[in-house]
Write a structure and sequence with these properties.
The protein is mainly alpha-helical and about 120 residues long. The protein has a domain at about 30-105. It is about 65% helix and about 0% strand. The chain has six helices and no strands. Helix 3 (about 40-60) packs across helix 6. The longest helix is centred in the middle third of the chain and has 20 residues, at about 40-60. It is globular, with a radius of gyration of 14 Å. The protein starts with a helix and ends in an 8-residue tail after the last helix. Residues about 5-25 have low confidence and may be disordered.
């Protein structure tokens, strides 16, 4: 079985290869533009973003990390409908911000207290 780190690297590689090269340039990337991408590119981007959020959570809140893993497993098969719907409602926000907001609602806050 692949480790979370290996999966994150693999997903990031997929993301880089599947999303338009200019998508990450500057702060102008919006959900409205993201929604014009092919469904497979959207899925790769969301999967990679969620897995990275899960990796961060695993270092701060184990229960949240498990929740995110479960969420990805459930939602990926359904095309991440909750994220796509949120992006339709929030077209002027960066896609990553929308993804984090959906994960925050599903699995808890990403505001961690310093030890």
């Amino acid at each position: 079985m692949l480790s979370r780190k290996a999966l994150a690297v693999a997903s990031l590689s997929t993301l880089v290869c599947s999303v338009a090269p200019g998508a990450f340039a500057g702060d102008g990337f919006k959900a409205s533009e993201f929604l014009t991408y092919p469904a497979q590119s959207q899925k790769s981007y969301i999967t990679s973003s969620a897995m990275m959020a899960g990796l961060i959570a695993s270092q701060n809140n184990r229960a949240q990390a498990v929740c995110i893993d479960d969420w990805v497993a459930q939602q990926s098969g359904q095309g991440y409908g909750a994220v796509v719907e949120a992006m339709r409602k929030l077209p002027d926000y960066h896609p990553s911000a929308v993804i984090v907001a959906v994960l925050d609602k599903a699995c808890g806050s990403f505001k961690y207290l310093k030890p």
